[in-house]
TrEMBL record:
It comes from Serratia rubidaea. Keywords: ATP-binding, mRNA processing, Nucleotide-binding, Nucleotidyltransferase, RNA-binding, Transcription, Transferase. It catalyses: RNA(n) + ATP = RNA(n)-3'-adenine ribonucleotide + diphosphate. It is an enzyme of class 2 (transferase). The active site is at residues 114, 116, 197. Residues 373-493 form the Polymerase A arginine-rich C-terminal domain. CDD domains: NT_ClassII-CCAase (cd05398). It comes from the Bacteria. Residues 22-32 have a biased composition (Low complexity). Residues 483-500 have a biased composition (Basic residues). The gene is pcnB. Belongs to the tRNA nucleotidyltransferase/poly(A) polymerase family. This is Poly(A) polymerase I. Residues 96-228 form the Poly A polymerase head domain. The keyword Signal does not apply. The lineage of its organism: Bacteria, Pseudomonadati, Pseudomonadota, Gammaproteobacteria, Enterobacterales.
Length: 500
């Protein structure tokens, strides 16, 4: 595990003057920052039962206040729009705190992707304070305060269900499996802290005193590099099975260890992911595999048996040695994706899915061709439909992406046909570059000399001058399978009528 940045300021360190002054006015001129917030904050019910001794159980730890001079969070690192929301809520008489991943990342010395706020104001009260606010969600009622492309998500403190037994069923609803279908019961900040998912996401920063509040030992876990669920792990996973994916994602992203009691139920409860809507799992898959740490996430998904519910077609072909072309391309495409993201290069989920599913597609196409006697191209087309249909039952990959996946796959059959004008026409295809990258990846993992020569030819052809391209095409010789010219059938004449 890597060394972690200092999160606490030494008591004799001087705090910046700007932080010691409790500014009452709102900051001016908000900065524009984009944010795409999912369901990262959602209060959850934890049924009254015996807790695991080492988990952050309710009522086991008093609240700790870390004053400004003892932590490293500075307002200059916080979105001015988030500060504006915090100040206005405070001026209107409400409690308001920065919470969740934003606080966690600031303490780790990272730049937060977004900033979330929690308050004792109800969603309707928040909407009255901000004209640029809209309320979203039925399952978890939230207020989104809009600042151009930046959205500041404001959630009301969540309360315990047990204190509201006669509450309207529209405020709280739970499935037989234990999964929360709706949760809009509000409470205090202490209750809210207990109902967040992980201890490291349950740290509160306020602008009234610039102090940090810790109700569940989150700061200690952050310093020690531990991912720990709040409450009984099995109950919390049943309330929202996506928490299992979040535990793995945070462990990979932050280079942390999942605590023993948090990790133990993961393999047993992995099948609960089948109850999650495929559209939500697709969103989660992008967070898992396209955030710059996809390879490490993949290893942890496999370790805790969470990969199979997401990609059953791929998991079905895993081998004990993990050394088939399919397994090698999976590792390589994830490493390549991580490298591109870490170097601020663009990535396309269509290419990722095309590479991951290529060998299941190939196997199915060959099986169809052998069993049905279809021409290989026809069997390949049917196999594309079957593979994508089955994968979309687990992850609802949008049509705009599956269309591109099909293009990349179909071009694999055409890249070897370069004679005449074909090479230039192929290069004009919008997905040619992605198709070429997949060809090069296949050549690498299969260690196929013929395919490697083909990939090298295309690499040289793309950078060659027109004269050199003409020479390269001429050296290929004639098309081994030239297109047959169609002979026009003679028009059938109508029979002549007698007496005409």
């Amino acid at each position: 595990m890597t060394n972690r940045p200092a999160m606490m300021r030494r008591p004799n360190d001087k705090a910046p003057v700007r932080e010691e002054q409790a500014a009452a006015q709102e900051p001016a001129a908000p900065r524009q920052r984009s944010a795409d917030k999912g369901r990262e904050h959602a209060g959850r019910r934890s049924a009254p039962r015996k807790r695991a001794p080492s988990s952050a159980a309710e009522g086991t730890r008093p609240m700790t206040v870390i004053p400004r001079e003892q932590h490293a969070i500075s307002r200059k690192d916080i979105s001015e729009n988030a500060l504006k929301v915090l100040y206005r809520l405070n001026k209107s008489g409400f409690e308001a705190y920065l919470v969740g991943g934003g606080v966690r990342d600031l303490l780790l010395g990272k730049k937060p992707k977004d900033f979330d706020i929690t308050t004792n104001a109800t969603p309707e009260q928040v909407r009255k304070l901000f004209r640029n606010c809209r309320l979203v969600g039925r399952r978890f009622r939230l207020a989104h305060v809009m600042f151009g492309p930046e959205i500041i998500e404001v959630a009301t403190f969540r309360g315990h269900h047990e204190q509201n037994p006669e509450h309207d069923k529209n405020s709280s609803q739970q499935a037989q499996s234990g999964m929360l279908l709706r949760d809009n019961i509000f409470g205090s900040i202490e209750e809210d802290a207990q109902r967040r998912d992980f201890t490291i996401n349950s740290l509160y920063y306020g602008v009234a005193d610039f102090a940090l509040r810790d109700y569940v030992g989150g700061l200690r876990d952050l310093q020690q590099g531990v991912i720990r669920l709040i409450g009984d792990p099995e109950t919390r996973y049943r309330e929202d099975p996506v928490r299992m994916l979040r535990a793995v994602r945070f462990a990979a992203k932050l280079d942390m260890t999942i605590s023993e009691e948090t990790a133990e139920p993961l393999p047993r409860l992995a099948s609960l992911l089948h109850d999650i809507p495929p559209a939500r799992l697709f969103e989660e898959s992008l967070k898992l595999l396209q955030s710059g740490y996809g390879f490490q996430t993949y290893l942890k998904l496999c370790e805790y048996q969470l990969f199979q519910p997401l990609f059953p077609l791929i998991a079905r072909q895993f081998t004990p040695n993990h050394n088939t072309p399919m397994e090698r391309i999976l590792v390589q495409v994830l490493k390549n994706t991580d490298h591109r993201l870490q170097n601020n290069m663009r990535v396309n989920p269509a290419f990722l899915f095309a590479a991951m599913l290529w060998y299941p597609l190939l196997e199915h196409a060959q099986k169809l061709a052998q069993e049905s006697g279809l021409a290989y191209y026809d069997a390949f087309a049917l196999a594309m439909n079957d593979v994508l249909d089955e994968q979309c039952r687990s992850l609802a990959i949008p049509k705009r992406i599956t269309t591109l996946v099909r293009d990349i796959w179909q071009l694999q059959l055409r890249l070897s046909r370069r004679q005449g004008k074909r090479a230039h026409k192929l290069m004009e295809h919008p997905k040619f570059r992605a198709a070429y990258d997949l060809l090069a990846l296949r050549a690498q993992v299969e260690n196929n000399p013929e395919m490697q020569r083909l990939a090298e030819w295309w690499a040289e052809f793309q950078d060659a001058t027109p004269a050199s391209q003409k020479t390269m095409l001429g050296s290929l010789g004639e098309d081994p399978a030239p297109r047959r010219s169609r002979q026009r059938r003679p028009r059938r004449r109508a029979p002549r009528k007698e007496g005409a």
